[in-house]
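Format is sequence with structure; example below:
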Amino acid sequence: MHAPRVVVITGASGGLGQALTRLHLEKGDLVIAATRKPVTHESTVFAPDPNRFFSYTVNVGNNEDVRRFAAWVHVRFGRCDILYNNAGIAVFETLIGMDIDELEETLRTNIAGVMYTTRAFLPMMLDHGSGHIVNIASLAGQVATAKASVYAASKAAVIRFSEGLQHELAGSGVRVTCAMPGPIDTPFLEKADRTGAYRSKVARYLLTADETARHIYKAVQSNRSEVAMPYRLKMLSVLYGLLPARLKKLVAPLLNRK
C-alpha cells in the first residue's frame, strides 16, 4: 500500500482552495490547508479522517512566515509532493481608485506570495527528485481589462514565473503547472467586485469551484504545463492575443465588464 501524497494548498479556507482540498482528500491524499485565518471544525468540514487533514495559519506575503510553514511541513511530514499556490486577492478598481494598501497587498499576495512559497518548498521536492508545483493564475493574466489592471498584472506575473520555472526545473523531476481559470462563482468574486455588477455580466461564463478543481486536478495528473478554462473564454483570449493593436482598441470596450 502506497503512502498518501502530501499536498499543500494555500488559500484553502474557501472557494477553489476548499474545493481542491475536498478533491484531494477524496483521492486519499494527505492535505495541509494553509489559510490566512485559523480553520475551525476541520475534521467535520473537510475530512472524516483527521489523520489526513491538517491546517496551518500563514500569511504567504510574509517570507519569514512562509519559511516557518515549510519548516513545519518538513519536520512533520518529511516531504511535499504537490504544492498549490492558490492564495490570492483581487480588487476590481481603477489604478487611481484603488487604495495604496490594497494595491501593495495584491502584489505581495499574488506575486511575492507565490514566489516565497515556491522557494520555501522547492528544496524538499528537489531532495526527493520529484514533486509538482501548481500555480493558480487567471485568464485575466492573458487579457487585461479596465478595473483589473493591477490584478491582471499580478496574474500575468504568475504565468511568466511559471514558464520560467518550468525551464529552470527541466530534468529535475519537479513539474510545474500553471492554471488559468476564468471567473469562478465564489466569495472571492464578491469581495473583488464591490458593485455587484460583474457577476451578472459574466454569468454565462462562471465556473463552479468544484468543476475548476476537477479541471486543474486532471491537468496535474496528466503533467500538463498549463490549463485554461472555460473553453470559450480560453479561445477568446487566444484570439485576442493574435489581434493587431489597432483592432484590440476596437474590441476592448466589449471586454470591459467590471
Q: What stands out?
A: The first helix runs from residue 15 to 26. The CA atoms of residues 170 and 187 lie 37 Å apart.
